[in-house]
TrEMBL record:
Residues the UniProt record annotates as site (Important for beta-aspartyl-AMP intermediate formation): 391
Record: residues binding ATP: 317, 389-390
Name of the protein in its database record: asparagine synthase (glutamine-hydrolyzing)
Keyword Transferase assigned: no
Binding site for L-glutamine: 123
Gene name as annotated: asnB
Pathway where this protein functions: Amino-acid biosynthesis; L-asparagine biosynthesis; L-asparagine from L-aspartate (L-Gln route): step 1/1
Originating species: Gimesia benthica
Reactions mediated catalytically: L-aspartate + L-glutamine + ATP + H2O = L-asparagine + L-glutamate + AMP + diphosphate + H(+)
Length: 670
């Protein structure tokens, strides 16, 4: 695990000094505390360590075209010789790499047979030689999580790539005469004169989804390379293309994954996921697993334990509020599997956490489960350097409760028109309902409200934070004019086009794989884990597992409205009975309670502060109404209020003159 950054310039005035490269690299030092290195095409030695800055005090740029690469390393594989930037034999191809290539040993054997000479034992060097053999197609042979940049000196080409599922991030900025890239946006902001103009469309997207989806960035002129995409910058031209798509559409074409019976599907699922876990246990440093007590993490921990001679270290985190605490299930799973379990109870300090979240996530990010994920990463890193997780199981195997609502809505769409009209009548929304967002009556009202719109937009209405109507009510007139004719829903609608011919539940899971999974879940885990220099590996996200899930019939995943049925059937020997049948809890925090108690003053002090109002984004009366409705228990607006709070804290961290948070609140461990 690492942090990467760099730039390619095609005009002399866009050349950057080693001092600038050092700043770009240092600001992401948390991603790689073990080592730091750089490459600059204008320096005689090319590759160098970031040592005394006086050595570059007289630096003069002299090349019309060239490149600079920076790297921060968290050492996992080849601790002794895996220093980056790293080159091929003659120093004409250089790479900075973030991630893990799990099939690197197999690839290395073939490359040695083809005559390539290796100077390290690292997976990074495999990519360099594979690029020499395959060019841009090299990425198609990699099995792992990655974001990397290759500088091809002979062709004067910069090649960028991101893994299929989107586990590792990659931002970039294209401007006349230069393309720059980095693992985190804050690195690009170290460039002299870096623009910090907020994109109003990105704010609209953030309030719709609780994240800024790819390829957008919160700032104009900056973009994210989408998952499963590669880019080539050559002769001043940038070309971006997709290199892999999960095979949801026309699954019959995957004859290698066309099985006839549930038993055959279970057999190949067990084999594929077991192999995925096995290759993710390759490590030269201590390794463990997150264990929430849910189906996915228990399966991963169980497979690890079955392949380990010693008890696997497992980690769970709990909260004093019972409805958010899963530790009893994690404890039961650990006892059954025989792991060495580490359990912590924390009292999250949201007030102290907010500035740190804003700093690490670079963009507004309102998934409140980032808070416990940060704490879990903190306590896990005290024992191990690598942790396996169960991320991806819900999206790939229809595990979320909302998929049941999607299935039910298909029944509604087949009803006669007069019945549909009756069920979507506005009168139902006027009936009283519990203030608790997850209460049965409120869920029914939310379900009925969504039925009036087309299925794809209906899904966003269910899972989104602010729907279109509520966002427009919140905005000032001036801000509405900036985003007129922009449809934030289109990001989700485009994802739905991946498999237009499958059943709508499968289409919805595929949409989540392309959108919610990389933009929310994987962003959350990457940033939280790397903030504590912890590597997180996700066996469910192996593209072999993802491809198998994509072609699998829905009836194997969902049975009588319950998701992940094939996971339970296939891995029943690893799952305690209570976990097989328990309802999904989620990894949340008590926002509803906080905003009526501990964080109540913060809502007024921050959201209604003149600084926030002067941004001319939100109408003061609309914000005040939102707060008052929540305080008076007329509605649970906690997710919406958290989004507004996160957005304002981001402004204060990156746009206003403010100091960078210098600490992370330590968990109060019990």
């Amino acid at each position: 695990m690492c942090g990467i950054t760099g730039t390619l310039w095609t005009t002399r005035d866009k050349n950057i000094s080693p001092l600038v490269l050092r700043s770009m690299t240092s600001v992401i030092s948390h991603r790689g505390p073990d080592d730091a290195g750089g490459y600059h095409s204008d320096l005689e030695s090319r590759s160098f360590l970031f040592a005394d800055e006086n050595q570059w005090s007289d630096f003069t740029p002299n090349s019309e075209t060239g490149a600079a690469l920076g790297h921060r390393r968290l050492s996992i594989i080849d601790l002794g010789t895996g220093h980056q930037p790293l080159s091929n034999e003659d120093g004409t191809v250089w790479i900075v790499f973030n991630g893990e290539i799990y099939n690197y040993q197999e690839l290395r054997t073939e490359l040695v047979r083809q005559g390539h000479q290796f100077k390290t034992e690292s997976d990074t060097e495999v990519i360099v030689h594979l690029y020499e053999e395959q060019g841009a197609a090299c990425v198609e042979h990699l099995r792992g999580m990655f974001a990397f940049a290759i500088w091809d000196e002979r062709r004067q080409r910069l090649f960028l790539a991101r893994d299929r599922m989107g586990q590792k991030p990659l931002f970039y900025r294209e401007e006349p005469g230069r393309l720059s890239f980095a693992s985190e946006l804050k690195s690009l902001l170290q460039l002299p004169g870096a623009s910090r103009e907020v994109d109003p469309h990105a704010i609209d997207l953030f309030l719709a989804y609780q994240y800024v989806p790819h390829p957008w960035s919160i700032l104009k002129g900056y973009q994210k390379l989408p998952p499963a995409h590669r880019a080539i910058y050559e002769q001043g031209q940038l070309t971006v293309e997709r290199y892999w798509t999960p095979p949801y559409q026309h699954p019959e074409l995957r004859t290698d994954l066309n099985f006839q019976s549930p038993q055959e599907w279970s057999k190949v699922l067990r084999q594929t996921l077991t192999e995925s876990v096995r290759i993710r246990m390759r490590s030269d440093v201590p390794l463990g697993a997150f264990l929430s007590g849910g189906i996915d993490s228990t399966i991963i921990a169980g497979l690890m334990q079955s392949m380990s001679e010693r008890p696997v270290h497992t980690f769970s985190i709990g909260f004093p509020v019972k409805q958010f605490d899963e530790t009893s299930y994690a404890r039961e799973a650990a006892a059954m599997l025989g792991t060495e379990h580490h359990e912590y109870v924390v009292e999250p300090e949201a007030l102290e956490m907010l500035p740190r979240l804003a700093w690490h996530y670079d963009e507004p990010f309102a998934d409140s489960s980032a808070i416990p994920t940060m704490y879990l990463s903190q306590v896990t890193r005290q024992e191990v350097t690598v942790s396996l997780s169960g991320d991806g199981g819900d999206e790939l195997f229809a595990g979320y409760d909302r998929y049941r609502a999607v299935a039910l809505s298909q029944w509604f769409d087949r009803l006669p028109g007069f019945l549909r009209k009756m069920m979507t009548a506005s009168i139902w929304q006027k009936l009283p309902a519990s203030v608790e967002q997850k209460s049965f009556r409120r869920r029914v009202k939310r379900f009925l409200a969504g039925l009036a719109v087309p299925p794809e937009r209906r899904y966003l209405k269910w899972v989104g934070i602010f729907d279109t109507e509520r966002r427009l009510e919140m905005y000032t007139t001036e801000f509405r004019e900036q985003i007129q004719n922009f449809d934030a829903d289109q990001f989700l609608l485009d994802a739905y086009q991946l498999c237009p011919d499958r059943d709508f539940v499968t289409r919805t899971t595929a949409t989540d794989v392309l959108s919610y999974l990389p933009c929310d879940i994987l962003t959350k885990v990457d940033i939280a884990s790397m903030a504590h220099s912890l590597e997180c590996r996700s066996p469910f996200l192996d593209h072999h597992v993802a491809e198998l899930a994509a072609v699998m019939p829905l009836e194997l995943k969902m049975h009588k409205g319950r998701g992940k049925q094939i996971l339970v059937d296939t891995f029943a020997d690893l799952l305690p009975e209570s976990i097989q049948t328990r309802k999904k809890m989620g990894f949340g925090v008590p926002l509803n309670h906080w905003f009526r108690h501990e964080l109540k003053p913060l809502l007024y002090d921050v959201l209604l502060d003149q600084r926030a109002i002067d941004r001319q984004i939100f109408d003061r009366k609309a914000v005040e109404q939102l707060i008052n409705e929540h305080q008076n228990q007329q509605w649970d607006h906690s997710a919406r209020l958290w989004s507004l709070l996160v957005l304002e804290m981001w402004f204060r961290t990156f746009m206003d003159p403010a100091s960078i948070p210098d600490h992370f609140p330590e968990a109060a461990l019990v």
